[in-house]
């Protein structure tokens, strides 16, 4: 299965790159922290090498031994996995649900650094994320230029034209999800060309397209809102780099077109799945745009910094996003987060990992309704924007999945197909 290939090949490759990154920063650690920095680097490398060996030799998944705030929740989850293994001994790397062991690996990578001050805050994936951003410069310039030109006459657009622009920017944000470093094993995966040029050609590859439903929801919410009651959109972020910029452009459009009044961004509290967005990545991206020597890029950066200062954009993270639980457990495991999302008019979930957690990462029949696969996770109307990079997909028309499968056996894991899949939460 694709899960087997991931655990056998991709995850060890990601760990090897993390070890290599620490090696390369040895002098920097020495300059900043002296011998203590070098000792911490050695300990972190030894921890990651041991982890890689456990993974490759299918050792049991062991409880977390660190004192970090989420350790107890992880160990409870591991106990549940033990009970599920029907007395077949301990859950191990190749004998456990893929979603669990993959999340567990990233949590252990975090522990390798967090337990080794003074380099505890070092993000082993940071360089890859920065590289993705810089290698996507042309696409970022094209998108910022398009958007700033659009803003000049946004007030003159009629409803039909506004809808057309929303659909365009939704698609850019959708296809931006192809730039995923955990999928490429940390290898280069940037957006090289202008993302706006080929949108028409890509439409047939959107196999669930609920953009009309999003438009109806937002326009109706706008009509129903009052001065006291504003329209709030939440976006559960995925990758840093080009995808994050495409998300920021989309959300700025929602504000300037008056389809939304406030946007909340939800990122990861620790480095995750190689290229997922943390608070540092979010702030760094806006700073890079601000200081860019391109007029429209810096205009975007300055404007977005202003949105954060005014509080119409809010960035927040929560431990739940980096737990192994699927989202049907949120109300129980993180009731504060669930209650917060219930205040939203629309929650946009970006990317593949979010989709796997929304649907419990199960091998569903293709035609099972999305609403059913969400397994009672309905805090607010929600929508998944995702390119397919793992083999779970629901909500297709009868025969649709089988038809694509016949001509493209790898269709579910190639990133070539995408969905804009909506659930009204009723």
Automatic annotation (TrEMBL):
Residues 6-404 form the Damage-control phosphatase ARMT1-like metal-binding domain. Keywords: Hydrolase, Manganese, Metal-binding, Methyltransferase, Nickel, S-adenosyl-L-methionine, Transferase. GO terms for cellular component: nucleus. One of its GO terms (biological process) is DNA damage response. InterPro entries: ARMT-1-like_metal-bd_sf, ARMT1, ARMT1-like_metal-bd. GO terms for molecular function: metal ion binding; phosphatase activity; protein carboxyl O-methyltransferase activity. It catalyses: beta-D-fructose 1-phosphate + H2O = D-fructose + phosphate; beta-D-fructose 6-phosphate = dihydroxyacetone + D-glyceraldehyde 3-phosphate; L-glutamyl-[protein] + S-adenosyl-L-methionine = [protein]-L-glutamate 5-O-methyl ester + S-adenosyl-L-homocysteine. Its cofactor is Mn(2+); Ni(2+). Its EC number is 2.1.1.-, 3.1.3.-. Belongs to the damage-control phosphatase family. Sugar phosphate phosphatase III subfamily. Subfamily III proteins have a conserved RTxK motif about 40-50 residues from the C-terminus; the threonine may be replaced by serine or cysteine. Metal-dependent phosphatase that shows phosphatase activity against several substrates, including fructose-1-phosphate and fructose-6-phosphate. Its preference for fructose-1-phosphate, a strong glycating agent that causes DNA damage rather than a canonical yeast metabolite, suggests a damage-control function in hexose phosphate metabolism. Has also been shown to have O-methyltransferase activity that methylates glutamate residues of target proteins to form gamma-glutamyl methyl ester residues. Possibly methylates PCNA, suggesting it is involved in the DNA damage response. This is Sugar phosphate phosphatase. It comes from Penelope pileata.
